[in-house]
Specification:
With 182 residues, this protein is of the alpha+beta class. The protein contains 5 helices and 5 strands; from the N terminus they run H-H-H-H-E-E-H-E-E-E. It has 3 domains: 51 residues, no CATH class; 56 residues, no CATH class; 42 residues, no CATH class. Zinc ion (ZN) binds next to helix 5.
């Protein structure tokens, strides 16, 4: 909400003392006279606060409808030009707050994913039967037109979890007349 100058606060306090029921009206007209636009839309809030004959159930239903087209961000209190969007937790948020919320959700997902990877690595390294296989391909000679061919060969290297070599061999993947074969 906009920060109000001291004279407005004093005017409101004075009227509240004289006639509590009139205070919001004076507050609004004094703000308008001072050229202030209030955020969130105090006028809209006050119109909804007017005593009503509607039942509690009707008011709740109206409230539920309002959240799909509200102009007041429930996080920062901004009064954006475009309607707020509903976040996953049901709060109506302005574009900026919705963006921040999406980023925080993504951050939490990334943290959880990193934790998963760490736990998987820890579990694998704890297994005495762990073997790591690396495959390095020798690219095939491209055709005259430059089209890539399948790899000509592959070097297979396997180590155990202490880094000791288990296997190291290069295998040919193409026929004996293929150019550049190892
Ligand atoms: Zn906001």
């Amino acid at each position: 909400m906009a920060h109000l100058p001291g004279y407005l606060v004093e005017a409101v306090a004075a009227v509240e003392q004289d006639d509590p029921g009139q205070a919001p009206v004076v507050w609004l007209s004094a703000a308008a006279a001072a050229g202030l636009r209030l955020y969130p839309d105090v006028g809209a809030v006050l119109r909804e606060a007017v005593p009503t004959a509607a039942t509690a159930a009707q008011l709740l239903a109206a409230g539920a409808r309002r959240t799909t087209n509200t102009r007041t961000c429930e996080d920062c209190g901004a009064h954006p030009e475009t309607p707020c969007t509903l976040a996953a937790d049901g709060r109506a948020l302005c574009g900026t707050c919705a963006h921040i919320t999406r980023l925080r959700t993504r951050q939490a997902e990334a943290r959880a994913a990193a934790q998963d990877v760490a736990e998987t690595a820890y579990r694998l390294l704890a297994d005495e039967h762990l073997a790591v296989l690396q495959i390095d391909y020798t690219p095939g000679e491209p055709t005259a037109a430059g089209t890539p061919r399948p790899p000509a060969a592959a070097r297979l290297t396997a180590i155990d979890r202490t880094g000791t070599d288990l296997y190291d061999r290069t295998v040919r993947l193409t026929g004996p007349r293929t150019p550049r074969r190892p």
